[in-house]
Amino acid sequence: MVVALQVLNGLTIGAIYILLASGLTIVFGLQGIVNVAHGVFYMLGAYLAIDLYPRIGFVPTLVVVFLVTGGLGYLLEVLGIRPLIRWKRHGVQVLVLTLGVAIIGVEITKLVWGPVPQLSEVPPALAGAIEVGPLVYPAYWLFVMAFTALFMGLLAVLFNRTTLGIVVQSIALNSDISQAMGTNAPRINSIVFALGTGVAGVAGVLAGPILSVYPAMAFDLLMILFVVVILGGLGSLTGAVISGILIGLVQAFGVAYLTGTVGNIFAFAVMILVLVFRPLGLLGTTGIVK
């Protein structure tokens, strides 16, 4: 019974990791850049939910947060990242740019919402618990798992069954040839980048009632998030799903039977062990995979 409870806990935390990692890995798979500011959009989504949910409701909050964080991500890509790529700057400069944006974002958040941790409200419709076999588990946590499964299914359809998805994969495989065939790669890059940051904002909305909302959350999950992305394989959505579940389970059992710190150590140990035998990660690829 304890084991089953920890499995559910691991799947819930893993669901948050999957949403965050999916946005990060599709951007890397398409543009080959590491967006250190990804956590800021996650943090911003959590704080916006605290202000918006009591006023407009849960579902409209998800939509508004997705549009706001996606729009801000679009501006970051167009005004900051795209010029550096066009000028063929080294990838380190993009990393430093996004790191600077992350630091500025955290400091502005402290000024607007303060440094004291907060907690989002659970929607009344999702309050309470549901019986899962012999267990009684929070309904909201089960909703997070179901939402993530549905959302990742929609992303899979988008990237593998639509014209946009075909164009994205062609750019990921060879941007120069794709542009020579008439593809507007810069615009597609901006759209996909905005999609990634929008998903991060949605993850923040969902994580708010489960985890504390505080400015440093923009960085606290960043290291474990990179573990998820690298373990699954840079550029692989399927890999992000598998590694998100795996790391969530490792951390849940580590916290339950040992300590939170040991849980994180185990997560890094799993990544190192996998990379020894598969240097590109579980499903590493140069582009977005099915």
Characterise this structure.
With 290 residues, the protein is an all-alpha fold. The chain has one domain: ABC transporter involved in vitamin B12 uptake, BtuC. The chain has helices at 2-31, 38-56, 58-86, 91-113, 139-161, 163-173, 175-180, 185-207, 217-220, 222-232, 237-257, 260-277; strands at residues 129-132, 135-138. It is globular, with a radius of gyration of 19 Å. The two termini are 35 Å apart.
What Rg is obtained from the alpha carbons, in whole angstroms?
A: 19 Å
Q: Fraction of residues in helices?
A: over 70%
Report the biggest beta sheet as strand number plus sense, adding barrel if it closes: 2 strands, antiparallel
Tally of alpha and pi helices: 12
Distance between termini?
35 Å
The arrangement of helices and strands along the chain is HHHHEEHHHHHHHH
| CATH C-level label | Mainly Alpha
Point out poorly predicted stretches: 286-290
Domain module tally? 1
What order do the strands of the largest sheet run in, or round the barrel if closed?
A: 1-2
Indicate the CATH architecture: Orthogonal Bundle
Strand percent estimate: under 5%
Broad shape: globular
Total E-strand runs? 2
And the CATH topology? ABC transporter involved in vitamin B12 uptake, BtuC
